Amino acid sequence: QVVLLESGGGSVQVGGSLRLSCRDAGYRYVSSCMGWFRQAPGKEREKVARTNTDGTIRYADSVKGRFTISKDSAKSTLYLQMNSLKPEDSAMYYCAADTAHLTCSDYVDRYNIWGQGTQVTVSS
User: What HEC string does 33-76 produce?
Assistant: First the structure.
């Protein structure tokens, strides 16, 4: 069973950095489709970045050049390095996995395993 546990959120000032971690506590890190999503109050959940089955990464336009996904398979952990943070990056960040499809997608509804979320707050 895949169990995703996020950590690393917090409060930072504009221009600061945070690194989020997503550990598969079920130790079955087998999904090729994993991603980071975020949801701000009053807004829909949106993709931040996700992996592809070929190992490439797709980023939201709003975070390109600032955020980077990486993973450590030995630790069953997916990371999101966030640099040059802006107030509009403030949101609850979720790690998710799609274990039900052969191809990866940007669509939130395709992801069937979700972590509990970690809050990121960027203040000016």
Answer: EEEEEEECCCCCCEEEEEECCCCCEEECCCCCCCEEEEEEHHHC
Place of tokens 């509009």: 88
The answer to whether residue 95 scores a pLDDT higher than 90 is: yes
CB atoms within 10 A of CB 68: 15
Phi/psi at 111 (5° precision): -95, 125
Contacts of residue 109, Cβ cutoff 8 Å, sequence gap at least 6: none
Q: In angstroms, how far apart are the furthest CA atoms of the chain?
A: 42
Residues 64 and 75: beta-carbon distance below 8 Å: no
pLDDT in tens, 80-93: 999 999 999 999 99
- pLDDT band of residue 75 (cuts 50, 70, 90) is confident
User: Rounded to whole angstroms, how far apart are CA atoms 109 and 98?
Assistant: 9
Neighbouring C-beta atoms of residue 8, cutoff 10 Å? 16
